[in-house]
Amino acid sequence: MSQLLQFFIWIPFFGFIVSMLIPRKKESILSGIAISTIGINLAGILILVVFWLLNSSPTLDIKHIVLFETEDIEIFIDFYFDKITAVFAVVGAILTFLVAVFSRFYLHREEGFKRFFTTILLFFLGYNLVIFSGNFETLFIGWEILGICSFLLIAFYRDRYLPVKNGLKVLSIYRLGDICLILAMWMSHHLWHENITFLEINDLKLVAEHIKEHNWYAFFIALMILIAAAAKSAQLPFSSWLPRAMEGPTTSSAVFYGSLSVHLGVFLLLRTFPYWESIFIIKVLIVCTGIFTGIIATSIAKVQSSVKTQIAYSAIAQIGLIFIEIALGFHDLALVHFTGNAFLRAYQLLVSPSVLGYKIHDMVFNFEPKKLRNTNTLLNKVKNSFYILSLKEWNLDFILYHFLWNPVKWVGKKLDFFKRKMSVASLSIIYLFGLYCNLFQSSIPVDLFDLLPFLFSFLGLLLILKAFAERGDALWAWSFVIGGQLFITLSIALLNENFGHNHILMYLSGSVVSAIVGFICLKKIKSFDNNIELNQFHGYTYEHPKIGFIFLLSCLGFAGLPFTPTFIGIDILFSHIHKHQEILIIFTALSFVLIELSIVRIYARIFLGQHKKAYHAIAYRSS
Amino acid sequence: MNELDSRQKNVLTNEKIIDNSSSILSNPSFDETLVLHELKHYLPSQTPLKDFIHHNSLHAFQHLKFYEAIFKASKIFGYQVTMQLKEYRELYETGRIKDTILERIIIEKKGRENLVKWKGYLLSKDYDASNLARIGQLRAHWKSLYKTDLDSLVQPLLFRILCSYLDQGISIWNFPSENKGFLSSIRELEKNSFTSFFKTERAKQLLLNGTCKITDLLKIVVGDEAYYEQYLFDQQFSHQGWSGMVSSIEDQPQSLLDQKKISLHDLIVFELLLEIDALNFQLGKDWKPLSTKVNSKPLNLFSDVPSTELNEVFTIFQETFEWSYYDEVLAGIALEKKRKHVDPVNKSFQAMFCIDERECSLRRHIEKTDPNCETFGTPGFFAVEFYFQPENGKFYDKLCPAPVTPKYLIKEFNVKGKREHELLYTNKTHTFFLGTLISLTLGFFAGVRLFMNIFRPKMSPAISNAFTHMTKDSELIIENKNLEDRENDLQIGFTIEEMATRVEGLLRGIGLTKGFAPIVYVMAHGSSSANNPHHGAHDCGACSGRPGSVNAKVFSFMANHLKVRELLNAKGICIPDETQFVGCLHDTAGDEIEFYDEQVLLPKNIENHKKNKSAFESALDLNTKERSRRFASINTKNELQKVRKAIKDRSVSLFEPRPELGHGTNTLCIVGSRNLTKGLFLDRRAFMNSYDYKTDPQGQLLTGIMKPLGPVCGGINLEYYFSRVDNHKFGAGTKLPHNVMGLIGVANSCDGDLRPGLPVQMIEVHDPVRLLIIVEHFPEVVLKTIQAVSEMYEWFINDWVHLVAIDPETNKFYYFKDGGFTEYTPITNELGVIENFNAFMESAVEMETNYIVDATQENLPVYRL
Question: How far apart are the first and last CA of chain B?
Answer without folding.
Answer: 35
